Amino acid sequence: MDDFNGKTVLVTGGSRGLGEAFCREFARMGCKVILNYAHGKDVAEAVASEIGALAYSCDISDEKAVEKMFQDAGPVDILVNNARIDPYKRPADATDGEWWDQVMSVNLKGAYLCGKFALEGMKKKNWGRMLHISSIWAYQKPNERMLSYAAAKSAMHALSRGFAAIGAPYNITSNVLAPGLIMTKLVSERLTGEALEREIATIPLGHGESPQEIALAGINMIRSSFITGEVLDINGGAFMRP
Ligand SMILES: NC(=O)c1ccc[n+]([C@@H]2O[C@H](COP(=O)([O-])OP(=O)(O)OC[C@H]3O[C@@H](n4cnc5c(N)ncnc54)[C@H](OP(=O)(O)O)[C@@H]3O)[C@@H](O)[C@H]2O)c1
User: Fold this and answer.
1) What residues act catalytically?
2) CB within 8 Å of 85: residues ≥ 6 apart
3) Which CATH number fits domain 8-234: 3.40.605.10, 3.30.200.20, 3.40.50.720, 3.40.1700.10?
4) For ligand 1, is residue 177 a contact (CB within 6 Å)?
5) Which residues are CB-neighbours of 142 under 8 A, at least 6 positions away?
6) Distance between CA 109 and CA 104 in Å, rounded?
7) CA 5–ligand 1 middle distance (angstroms)
8) I want to staple 128 with a disulfide (CB 3.0 to 4.6 A). Which of 37, 132, 172, 182 is the partner?
9) Does residue 13 have its Cβ closer than 6 Å to ligand 1?
């Protein structure tokens, strides 16, 4: 099991929710943390200054910007591909095709670009860890709202296996963490009353989980140098892998 003290970690979408929890846990372990975000500068910088991280603004769907972020960061040891466009935040004027492209460009292409540029530095170090944050929606039957989100998350599993195969000769592992309901601040505000009860009723353990608990499960998974190309489902029993 690896000790991550002193490692350089880049967490995409690290300014709030699960990404923030990853940043906090890695900082607590003595890592140098680069907290990526795209829009909310004040929020990102407040978290970063509290934990001694570097807040770095970069839209991960922009190839040139991602290339520059990894040049500025220097070789990264650990990448957490966590950023997403929230499926509940579709702009009213976006057509179906435009919304599909927006979701795919951040949630899938962004993860690919970050993995691709991270891989270059990891190969030089002959060591690396990638963790891609998927979702239970990679398996669930999506409704119209969740369709592009679910498709991007499913594809992320194939992406992770690709990085696992390419990275293996360089001691680079690549894995997926697929959470169910995470009780982030945003989700807790959105899901209240009957909607929350309906959601909880689908979870055998009867509750959602804190971002910190989910982040710690992901970090524990990637401590092993012998787990690669795998998926850790963490969902209170809502989806049980055969
Ligand atoms: N919440 C849940 O219940 C749940 C369940 C299963 C899986 N997940 C997965 O867990 C991960 C985190 O979820 P969350 O609920 O914590 O997310 P969230 O609250 O929606 O936060 C998303 C993060 O991504 C950043 N971001 C958005 N667009 C970006 C872009 N183009 N480039 C770079 N950063 C960008 C946001 O920062 P800015 O606003 O500054 O851009 C923010 O830091 C996601 O991959 C999500 O799919 C969540």
Assistant:
1) 149
2) 102, 103, 106, 107
3) 3.40.50.720
4) no
5) 149, 150, 151
6) 6
7) 25
8) 172
9) yes
